[in-house]
């Protein structure tokens, strides 16, 4: 009886944890937590990110605004890591910069790719365009949503394109 109780308790903890882990992979974009990402959720997240990056609020993002936002984020991460270390956490959560091979949008070619009219600033339309293209590419069945299976397929395709580097 005791053994059965222990197994039941372990399963009760493990199953929700696995579901949470699967949900977390798409959680940033899945605003309502229903397990699928819609174009509206991507659009809202993209608009929020644009507003955060548009430091002066003029409706356009410059390279310097991106660099400043990146520096501020690095500072916040450094402070968080210092706080974690002071609380006794060692290397529990690495916060490296694996995206785009270590390059960030303001430091590499990404800014130029997004700045389609080459005016040195990104409008919301230019900023959204790449996100919408990516959404369409990941929405394999064309139903207007990206589910866990499509996210997994996109992740595997990305790994294959990158040659599994850094992942």
From TrEMBL:
UniProt signal peptide: 1-21
InterPro entries the UniProt entry points to: EF-hand-dom_pair, EF_Hand_1_Ca_BS, EF_hand_dom
GO function term, MF aspect, one: calcium ion binding
Record's compositionally biased regions (Basic residues): 95-104, 158-167
Record keywords: Signal
Pfam families with a match to the protein in the record: EF-hand_5 (PF13202)
Domain of life: Bacteria
Residue numbers spanned by region Disordered: 83-104, 137-167
Basic and acidic residues composition bias: residue spans: 83-94, 148-157
Residue ranges of domain EF-hand in the record: 41-76, 126-161
Protein name: Ca2+-binding EF-hand superfamily protein
Organism the protein comes from: Sphingomicrobium lutaoense
């Amino acid at each position: 009886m005791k053994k059965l109780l222990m197994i039941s308790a372990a399963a009760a903890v493990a199953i929700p944890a696995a579901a949470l882990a699967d949900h977390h992979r798409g959680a940033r974009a899945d605003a309502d937590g229903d397990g699928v990402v819609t174009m509206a959720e991507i659009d809202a997240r993209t608009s929020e990110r644009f507003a955060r990056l548009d430091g002066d609020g003029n409706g356009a993002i410059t390279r310097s605004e991106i660099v400043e936002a990146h520096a501020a984020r690095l500072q916040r991460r450094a402070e968080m890591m210092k706080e974690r270390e002071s609380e006794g956490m060692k290397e529990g959560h690495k916060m490296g910069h694996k995206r785009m091979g270590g390059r960030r949008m303001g430091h590499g070619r990404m800014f130029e790719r997004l700045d389609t009219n080459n005016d040195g600033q990104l409008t919301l339309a230019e900023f959204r365009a790449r996100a919408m293209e990516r959404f369409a590419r990941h929405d394999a069945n064309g139903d207007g949503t990206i589910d866990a299976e499509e996210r997994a397929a996109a992740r595997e395709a990305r790994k294959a394109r990158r040659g599994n580097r850094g992942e």
